[in-house]
Write the structure tokens for this entry.
Amino acid sequence: MSIPKHTDLSRLCIHTITTKPWNIEQSAKYYAAAGVKGITVWRDTLEGRDIRSTGRMLREEGLTVVSLCRGGFFPSIDPAKRKSAIDDNKRAIEEAAALGTNLIVLVCGADPSQPLTESRKQIQEGIESVLPEASAAGVRLAIEPLHPMYADSRSAINTLAQANDMAEAIDSPWVGIAVDVYHLWWDAHLQQEIERCARHNHLFAFHICDWKTPTTDLLFDRGLMGEGCIPVQQIRSWVEATGFKGFNEVEIFSNIYWKEDQHQFLKKIIEAYKEHS
Ligand code: ZN
């Protein structure tokens, strides 16, 4: 592989969902002790907490809060649900600002009872309607295209080309894209679309994990880097060739790994990060 391996953890970020059995205080303490420098916070971990002081705690551990996960889920055939999604995204923007991160990842949503084109229209309208709050709070929004197996209900944006089209149509410095290898590795146009994304200053985040064969669960069977068929290093080389200097964010949902001792799992993540990402 032409890209040098990671020799340190200075650009390693872990999503709290990856070590779901840990609460955010445990995640922060154990990531930091292992030398991890970034954390992406899933909103469920903030429940019942003062968000501002949680953000302070994360920074005191030496962690950069890379992003808040997640906003989105804009489309619905029901206008009341679309309105409540917009309200929820405004709340997410406030939470991100309180936490001290300038990025929210959007799982954009889809409603199986209407055409994907309609869902995409509603996604664009939803994002545009929260832009005043985003810019006032200094919080950017990253559209995350999801694998087409989720096109029914989780995201009507399924390729990087579609995400690029939408970010360019919205044309705001507050809207860009999160590239996740799990969702995009199969795309023959991935390299060109990564270059296009960066050319428009839309490349906001880079998520990594692996695709296992067979995948036994559509949501909760992601693998560690090196365990599957995704050419993670190749994709990273394309991302870095654009000048991207952000974190490599490990985002693994796994019923198998969540049952393991999380300290052992964290060791495996770090090994896999150095060897296979
Ligand atoms: Zn992701």
About this structure: The chain has one domain: 12-276. The longest helix spans residues 116-137. Strands lie at 12-15, 38-42, 64-72, 103-107, 140-143, 175-180, 203-208, 210-211, 222-223, 248-250. The longest strand covers residues 64-72.
